[in-house]
Amino acid sequence: MDILIRILNIIGSLGLFLYGMKLMSEALQRAAGGRLRRAMGRMAATPVSQIASTAAVTATVQSSSAITVMIVSFVNAGIVNLRQAIGMIMGANIGTSLTAWIIAVFGFQLNFSVISIPMVGLGFALILIHRVHYRALGEIIIGFALLLLGLTVLQSSMIGVAQNTALFRELATYADLGYLSILLFILIGTLLTAVLQSSSATITLTIVMCQNGWIPFEAGLAMILGENVGTTVTANLAAIVTNTPARRAAVSHTLINLFGLLWATPLLPWIAEGIVVLFAGAGAASLMLAFFHTGFNVLNVCILTCFVPQIMRVVTWIVPQSPDDHRKRLFALDSGLVSTPELSLMQAHNEITNHAKRVLKMFGMVRSLMTLTNAQEFRSEYEHVEKYEQITDRVEREIITYLSRITSQNNGEAATHRLQTMFRTVSHIEQIGDSNLELAKILRDKKEQNLWFNQELRDKLYGLFDLVEQALYVMVTNLENPTDEGVERSRGIEEQINLTSAQLRSEQLRLAQGQEYKYMAGITFIELVVECEKLGDAAVHISAEQAADL
After folding, report:
1. What's the whole-model pTM score?
2. Which residues of 16-46 are buried (b: 16+ CB within 10 A; e: fewer)?
3. Where would a tag sit more exposed on the chain, N or C end, judged by fewer CB atoms within 10 A?
4. Which pLDDT does position 345 carry in this prediction?
5. Is 278 part of a structural domain of the chain?
6. Which 3-state string (H, E, C) describes 308-368?
7. What are the phi and psi torsion angles at 214 (to 5°)?
């Protein structure tokens, strides 16, 4: 019975450890705020920034699984390509090694069980101060205290189990079988991580076992190699419902870590011996394991950075093109695996930007209707516009649903403001989609009624459409990278649209007084002008709201 209680204590302490890490991670994200968003924005710029930025963000979030799932979702949504995703995954592998250093530096130096409760009290006092930054700081302190308390309970519980059972004695008997032992502990690390879905938890177990001498140092290194492979299961499970490029990104994560496993396993005895020599006289097992975890991932990334094209070819061969890709649109919002407000808002913003690109493409289809003379080609393109409008309606509903779920979370003032902006932005994009369809319907009715404009009117309408297309393009640019200059440019284009629209309406009213004026053609022309003006207004509203969040 005593053993059962101790085993339950181990499970509970792991839960306490992971909850503390989750609480600390979410609070760090809220405290980082815009800096975290800007780091995420720089991720895909260059290979070096892909690795460095993702490593920094993963170290902040303390969850490589969350980051890799997010990267897969970016690929699925078309935000980043496969080459960029591979660099970002490499960075995530480096960033996640900070967990081992936290445990090694803080977890075994002091008896934090004595001061964990006062730390919780301090954190709670800060939370009572109704200021966003104080609340975030309080949650960071409480999360860190719970993490250390869980670690202390975990260590004492495992010591009790070791003293009262033959479990670790039996495990130690398999540690002297040479390479067979290495393979066995690699398998144990892989399976434990795949089951627990947290490399942080299994690395903690590994450090505790090595620190107390229940498994030799070399076996601990082998478990870390296995944990590196086991942690890739999360992204691969999530990628099952995604498109082909996203599945390839998930598989590339597995290949990167498997490659490291293959070259490090034969060298593991010499690596272990070298680390022991390096830390001679001052080497706690926890520090040596943390050093190996970081060094191994950095070296593996340095080797593979030169072979990204080859990795792309291999994953392309492993994951062939799927004919159902067009059906899978919103994995970034459907996965539900990245639940922290800051990362959730990032993904929502990326999907909103993708949504805006769809309505820009839809406007290009509407423009083509103005020049198509063949009835069958016109009908086919019009049906394409209708299909895109249905897609925009569905996407709007899914984004609104996702944003509503974020609203129910514990959001800070800045996150709440961004949510409100996103709701308005989605509404404006939907207006643009509706106006696109309305323009297409007007052009369809014009064709069916055999109405026509003279060359002068067509040229003026083409000019107005050019301005609207510019406004939509600037809108998308401002969503991707909001700047004050971009907003000014958007406002300038909108003023030109309004001025041109007013002139065209005035001309039609003046022409309507003539006896040869064709009223149906004139009404159709004015309807097109009015819809173009609505498009320009919606586009400038979106641009202005993005700049307000700078």
Report:
1. 0.63
2. bbbebbbbbbbbbbbbbbeebbebbbebbee
3. N
4. 78
5. no
6. HHHHHHHHHHHCCCCCCHHHCCCHHHHCCCCCCHHHHHHHHHHHHHHHHHHHHHHHHHHHH
7. -80, -30
d(CA 410, CA 234): 25
Q: What are phi and psi of 97, to 5 degrees?
A: -70, -10
DSSP letter string, 156-210 = HHHHHHHHHSSHHHHHHHTTSSTHHHHHHHHHHHHHHHHHHT-HHHHHHHHHHHH
Number of domains in the chain: 1
Helix axis angle for 244-278 and 217-230, nearest 10°, is 170
Provide the residue range defining the domain that includes 533: 340-548
Is residue 374 a part of any domain in this protein? yes
Q: How does residue 61 score in pLDDT terms, banded at 50, 70 and 90? A: low
Q: Is 144 within the bounds of a domain?
A: no
Return the ∠ at Cα 528 (arms to 525 and 533), rounded to 5°.
Answer: 125
Structure-token pair, residue 418: 């961004």
- Whether 466 maps to a domain, the answer reads yes
Residue 48, pLDDT score: 77
Residues 117-122, mean pLDDT to the nearest whole number: 81
Token match 């099952």: residue? Answer: 240
Ranked by mean pLDDT, the top range of 16-20, 86-90, 110-114 is: 86-90
**Cβ–Cβ < 8 Å for 83, 308:** yes
Q: Which two tokens stand for residue 536?
A: 């320009």
Q: Which residue has the tokens 């498009």?
A: 535
- Quick: pLDDT tens for 341-357: 666 777 788 889 888 99
Q: What is the pLDDT of residue 338?
A: 45
- Of 162-176, 253-267, 377-391, give the lowest mean pLDDT range: 162-176
Q: At what angle do helices 132-164 and 98-106 cross, to 10 degrees?
A: 70
Provide the pLDDT for residue 412.
Answer: 64
Closest CA to 85 of 67, 66, 72, 69: 72
Token pair 């495992």 in the structure block, residue: 158
**Burial zone of 78 (CB within 10 Å; 0-12 exposed, 13-18 middle, 19+ buried):** middle
Does residue 24 contact residue 137 with C-beta atoms inside 8 Å?
Answer: no
- Nearest C-alpha neighbor of 17 from the set 142, 147, 119, 144: 147
Mean pLDDT estimate for the chain:
79
Whose CA is closest to 53, among 24, 89, 27, 21?
A: 89
Q: For residue 3, how far is the Cα from the chain centroid?
A: 42
d(CA 324, CA 272) in angstroms, rounded, equals 48
- The identity of residue 166, as a single letter, is A
- Helices within 412-454 (DSSP H only): 413-448
